[in-house]
Amino acid sequence: MIKKTLAFILSVALFAACKKDASVGPIQGSMDDVAFNKYETFFLDELWKQFPDWGTSVGYHKYDSVLLVPDKKTRDKQLRFVKVQLDSLGKYQPTAFLQTNKMDYAIMQNQLQYMQWQMEQLKSYEWDPTYYNIIGTFAYILNEHYAPLEKRLTNFYQKMLNVPAYYKEAEKDIKNPVVELTNLAIEQHQGGLSVFGADFADSLKKTKIPEATKKLMLDRAKLCTDAINGYTDFLKNLKNDQPRSFRLGKALYEDKFRYEIQASETAQQIYNAAVERKKFVHREMAKITLKLWPKYFGNQPKPTDTLDMIAKMIDTLSVKHARPDEFQATITQLLPKLTTFVAQKDLLTMDPTKPLVVRKEPGYMTGVAGASMSSPGPYDNTQNSYFNVGSLAGWSPEKAESYLREYNQYTVQILCIHEAIPGHYVQLVYSNKAPSMIKSIFGNGAMVEGWAVYSEQMMLDNGFGNNDPEMWLMWYKWHLRSVCNTILDYGVHCQNLPKQTAMTLLMHEAFQQQAEAEGKWKRVSVTSVQLDSYYTGYKEIMDMRDDWKSKIGDKYTLKEFNEKFLSYGSAPVKLIKEAMLAKENPQGAEKH
Ligand code: ZN
Ligand code: ZN
């Protein structure tokens, strides 16, 4: 998983991924390219003016002090902005552009159409109470050290002015909301209250702001706390006889999938492929288990149900794991081994000047995930990439044991491949070198997650783990998570999949523990489409590598494929495929 900075109001996938200069220097290209690059810069500044919270979350701080009240007037202005930009885009002729600008163009167009669709068709401001949430942005301003504290607190103070009006408007617009999203909104708002309470007060104490001003600031924060409490009371007492279903429905789902995943296939096609993939993986797992059986169970009889037999083997293999206090050290020691392996097998070139720092998960992230990557935002050049590892200190022995069985001696290696080398971290380093703000800001989730999943298999295919059947079995279990994420998401939102069937899918067919399966059910009932990104991206990369092999023939090398694929930045796989498989550009304009 990649840690997202904020849940953005339009639920646009945000990737705190790449660091880039806002003004990319002169790139070779036609006058059209030059004009288009100017337009991009203009477009982004206008975008942040219309969506200041989003700007803050990607590190663009010009509008930090602004909070727009989400009323009809604001929405109309935003929609007008979107339509005007679509119009402006229409005036360019992308066919003559440099490859990188062609991609930017397609990404911007898709993004704007997506926003228009969200405002005109999806209308989640009417039925999703989590649409209204200011806490993330305020917490970001308070916790991230991008500017001196006093400056950030002043912006915080000015931005607070509209908070009461903001929630008044929310209460006016919400009708028959989704119950699950209503409960989540209550949870998120109650959980975030301290941002305007103790957190803000503690930060104020660290400054030399005059006492009288401090008092004004604290008084305004109190009004914000009241407004948030008012909103949660409103949600708790809302008469909601005919709530909207949390299931998105097939029509909206296919549209959302098209805009968000930007795959070359439909959601239905990807779902069908995932169902087939699951069958294939089960067959492979059964073969491996049969082979391993005598080694672990001797003459003991095998369970008659194949999946029960596989589950028994997985349970047995999961017993080997790090001690709770060694977990972080295990990860730190694994990373250089992965780097060495990638170099030995010539899988791709790594940049030794961009080290990855392993750190204990910072306090404000605690409880989100056991391990994750944090990377600087698109406008933020100065910071490191971090591999955050949650501490298991203070966990009950049962909880720690269950966690460590999940991240046992096999899967902890796959975790490090996925999150770091050559997964997310390596992809981000490459992405940072692709000179496009557009691609970093609208980074494609399916490409990013797909690469991480693809890189797991690529490592094993090349002999990582010595081809041990144990390693392969555990990878298949891990991989089933991605596959079943897609089956679950599509099933729930398009096919009315009941909870009981979903739990059987996750626990019996994907070998997950009850707690993990329950967590996944909760996630699928408050999100849609995002869970498709892992398997869809993986499948598209694998498919396109086959096409690339046919194109290149005898000269094919894995390294060239990997490096070329990554060189385009976090663009949709579909667009990378178009670029890589295109006939050579006659003007030779493509940048290498
Ligand atoms: Zn991931
Ligand atoms: Zn144990």
Describe this structure in words.
Helices cover 62% and strands 2% of the residues. It has 592 residues and is mostly helical. Helix 13 (267-297) crosses helix 14 and helix 21 (469-494) packs antiparallel against helix 22. The protein is globular. It starts with 30 loop residues before the first helix and ends in an 11-residue tail after the last helix. Bound molecules: zinc ion (2 copies). One zinc ion (ZN) binds at residues 1-2, 418, 424, 449, 452. One zinc ion binds at residues 1-2, 418, 424, 449, 452.
Percent strand: under 5%
Number of distinct helices: 26
Main sheet overview: 3 strands, mixed
Domain tally: 3
Strand order of the largest sheet: 1-3-2
* SSE arrangement, N to C: HHHHHHHHHHHHHHHEEEHHHHHHHHHHH
Distance between the termini: 30 Å
The helix/strand class is: mainly alpha
* Total number of strands: 3
- What are the bound molecules? zinc ion
Q: What general outline do the C-alpha atoms trace? A: globular
Write down the overall mean pLDDT.
90
Radius of gyration of CA atoms, rounded to a whole number: 25 Å
The residue fraction in helices comes out at: 55-70%
Give start-end ranges of low-pLDDT stretches: 1-27, 585-592
Q: What's the helix and strand layout?
A:
Layout: H1 31-50, H2 52-57, H3 72-90, H4 99-122, H5 124-127, H6 135-143, H7 149-160, H8 163-173, H9 179-191, H10 198-205, H11 211-237, H12 250-261, H13 267-297, H14 306-317, H15 327-344, E1 356-360, E2 371-374, E3 385-389, H16 397-406, H17 411-419, H18 424-433, H19 437-441, H20 445-461, H21 469-494, H22 499-509, H23 514-526, H24 533-552, H25 558-567, H26 573-581
Parallel strand pairs: 1-3
Antiparallel strand pairs: 2-3
Helix pairs in contact: 1-3, 3-4, 4-12, 8-11, 9-11, 13-14, 13-21, 15-17, 17-20, 20-21, 20-24, 21-22, 21-24, 22-23, 24-26
Bound molecules: zinc ion (2 copies).
